[in-house]
Amino acid sequence: xxxxxxxxxxxxxxxxNSSTNGxxxxxxxxxxxxxxxxxxxxxKFKNKLIALYCALTATFATDFIQRIVVGHNTKVLALAFFxxxxxxxxxxxxxxxxxxxSVFSFQNLxxxxxxxxxxxxTEFKSHSDDILCISDAWNLSSVSDNLQSSKEDTNLGNN
Length: 159
What we know:
The protein has 159 residues and is mainly α. 75% of the residues lie in helices and 0% in strands. Helix 2 packs parallel to helix 5. The longest helix is centred in the C-terminal third of the chain and has 26 residues, at 131-156.
């Protein structure tokens, strides 16, 4: 296995054979997106059927499918990790709200490391010169933060 991996090729490139195969990486990105959306929806709704519906609906959305036809595969890579970014961001926010758990718990450190890995993959592995992909990741993080803030504002009136 080591013999066909050149010094400039990554392990991911060797697994997907991305230098000669343009289809397998795209299918892998869609699988990551679908699984990530399922995990995020299951975390938010606590219902596996609703999570499956959300994941299928998001994966087969028109905007996502048209990226196959147009060939913007770097944007598919950037979009593939968005549900996972939201998942780890929401897990961190929810754990910070829980006063019984320590902020520096092992689970929070794992979630933070995975969030950093997803942001790194979205920003630097898709195309570092594609400023749209980079700004989309940060805009998504700020939208999630604003949604969390609005949820807290609506809870203030209930107390």
